[in-house]
Every structure is written in C-alpha cells, then in structure tokens.
Amino acid sequence: MSPVSRDAIAERALRARPTTMLDVAQALELVLQHARSPAPTRVSLSRALGLALAEDVRSDIDSPPHDKALVDGYAVRAADLAGGTGELRVLEEVTAGAVPTHIITQGAATRIMTGAPIPAGADAVVMVEQTELHDSATEVNGAIVKIAAPKVTSGQNILPRAASMKRGEIVLRAGCRIRAIEVGLLAEFGQAEVSAFPLPSVALLATGNELVRAETTPAPGQIRNSNGPMLAALADATGADVTDLGIAPDNEESLSAAIRDALTRDVAVLSGGVSAGVLDLVPAVLARLGVRQVFHKVRLKPGMPLWFGSLESDDRKRLVFGLPGNPVSSLVCFELFVKPALRALAGRSDVAHDTRTARLATEHQQRGDRATYWPATLQREGNESTVHLLGWKGSADLATLAAADCLAVFPPGTERFPVGTTIEVVLL
C-alpha cells in the first residue's frame, strides 16, 4: 500500500461525521493542523531558557578563534624532540588571554597555559608534568627546559582553530529548545538576544461533582482531584505557562463560568464530563461558548471519549481539549495529543511524542477495535531493549501507571503477540 500524505489524512478526517471515531494518527493530524505557533519575539538570553528558537543562529567567529593549548606545558617543534626527549631554551610565557610575541625556532620553546594561543612555528604542546626547568633558572624567560615525554607528535595537545565551529556555520537550528547548554553556546557566539517563540498559556480545569481537593478527606461518593495537579505538572514539564483553575461542579452555570475563564488562555485542558453520561455537560457548554468541535472520540484505549475543538476570535485561535475523567485515560490523551500541540505552539521541532521499538518480554493477547496503550517498563538487555507489561487494572489504576516509564502500543484487532515480538513504545 502506498504511503498516505499528511494532507490526505487530514482531509479524510475533516470529512468524517461527528459520530465517526478517528484513529490516533488521524486525530493527531487534526490537532497539529490547528496548533500553529504565534509570531516570535526578541528576548534577552537570560529569559530564553525553555523557549524554542525562531530562526537559525550562525557563528560570528571561528571557535576556537586560534590554535589553542589543551594543557599547561611547553609549545615546541615536534621535530626538535626525536624520541620525546631534549633540552630547549624558553623564549617567553603565554597565559590564557595573552598573545605570543616570539616565533618558535629550532631549539626553542614557549611556556604556555591551557587555552592560550599557540605561537607561530610550534606544532605540539608537551605537558608540564613531562618537563623540568634547570635548577639554576631564576625566571622562565631564557631558562633551559628539559623534556622527557614518551613521544612528541605534530598536533599533540593542540585544538586547531575553528575545530568546534567555523564562522558562518549554523550553531543551532530554528525549532531547537533552549536548555542551559544552548544558553552557553548562544553566549559563546555573541547572541545576547534571540528570536524565540513564547510559551503557550494553558488553563487546567477538572470537572465533576465527586471531586474534592487533595487536602480534603473524601466523603462517601467523593474522590480527590488527581487529574488537575497531574495535568498541570505535565504541561509545566512540556513547557507552558500553566494556570490550574481547580474544580468545577457538574452544572451548566458553574461550568460555563469556569470554561469561559479557561478560554482566555491559548489552550484549555478540561478533564471529565466528555463521555455519554447524564452529567457529561462539557461538549454542550463548549458549543454554547462558541467552541467548534473538531472531533469527539478516538479509537484509543484508554482515552476513547477525547474531545477536541477550537475557538477563533480577535485574530486568535484557542485550542480546547476535553480529556476523559479517569486518570490513566487523561494522562495517555495528554501524552498523545496535548503534548505535541503544546510543542507545536511553542515552535519546537520535536513535536511528535517520543517513541522507541522494543521486544516484548511477556506474551500479550490483544482484543478489540481500538489501539491499546498499555503501561510498561523499558529495559536495556545487551544490544536490545525489552518492554515489560505491568499488571494494569484499567483506566482508573493510577498506582500501576506510577511504576511505568513507557506505554506499550498494540494496534486494534484480535491478535496474539508472542514473547520477542517487536512493538512500538511511547516514552513517558
């Protein structure tokens, strides 16, 4: 079968009836079609951490800008030290930040410190531990240094000019997320300011009459709100400006007020109220607030009731995710759909969720017409990775999920997966 283009998948998904469930790939295509990053801004390097570059950054210098010493020692001509031994006259001492003033000629050397420029004529540096100044020397300049190295070769202990980066070469590409390492690299190449995309703002809202805050002891019929704090932490770790709006009860007035507040952010992530129960009011409230449904329900286990839509006004688009109320379903939907959307809105190049392949450590029997994302652990064994399925008890079993570092992916259908079968896993 020939591969299907992204546009073809999106077109097919857009023509689907609202009651038609999409598969995971189709749903993700539609999400990313709506997740467009805003215009970039100029920010100081001190405020760039966590943002994504909006343009390629090129080096304005060679790095290093000169041939430099990698150790403290003596800059020499390798030809003067056949067998690694000999005595040389010291012309001068050059520290980091200084510039050599003498050319190394036959029988001469320069004492040099790590990072200092290599003087003309020298082609090697001998470590100071392999040298000894004559006892009669009262100062370095003019002294005789005795070399006793195992071997001296041309290029030894020297980092050539532009070995790390050449002037005009691309240092970092657009879409790169700026970590502490990139901050240091940008500073090295003179980028006191960078063009970057702002982090998307995200509002989290948990819905349900049964929910109480974490510090509350639940009464009969109540449960603590685990989704709100979990989703807020996930959004923060992904890279977003997060606001947790707490809990909204299952009545239209309260839901409308809370969701209206959530819609002031770039992304609203709601949990609960999107299934088919009597009190699953979220889709109707969203419709009344002008949010257009893009899709509802995905061929996914856990997470089938997922709802996604958008609100466009004032030249601005807001994305809305209605996640299932069960915590494992909520997390799986965040990993598969919300995280890629947040990365795309932030201008990052690493949009897709993180996947690997691994061999099954235990047999698995797949049944049903939905793809299953099963909590598991990934282990490295020799040259291969193996995936170990956990004893998952369903979409409310958050305790088992806490032991997982990945989700094992099983496609829809009825099929037995023997031990050793290679499958895809999504990293958590």
As a whole number of angstroms, the C-alpha radius of gyration is 31 Å
How many DSSP helices?
A: 8
What is the molecular shape? elongated
Q: Describe the biggest sheet?
A: 6 strands, mixed
Tell me the span between the first and last alpha carbons: 31 Å
Mean pLDDT: 92
The helix content is: 10-25%
Biggest sheet: strands side by side, in what order?
Answer: 8-5-7-6-10-9
CATH topology of the largest domain: Molybdenum Cofactor Biosythetic Enzyme, Chain A
- The secondary structure category is alpha+beta
CATH class (first level) name of the largest domain: Alpha Beta
Secondary structure layout plus pairing:
Elements: H1 6-14, H2 24-34, E1 41-44, E2 52-53, E3 57-58, E4 68-69, E5 73-76, E6 85-94, E7 108-112, E8 124-127, E9 131-133, E10 144-148, E11 158-159, E12 170-172, H3 180-188, E13 193-197, E14 201-207, E15 211-212, E16 223-224, H4 227-238, E17 241-248, H5 252-262, E18 267-271, H6 282-288, E19 292-296, E20 300-301, E21 307-313, E22 316-323, H7 327-345, E23 355-360, E24 364-366, E25 371-381, E26 384-389, H8 398-401, E27 406-410, E28 415-417, E29 422-427
Helix pairs in contact: 1-2, 2-7, 4-7
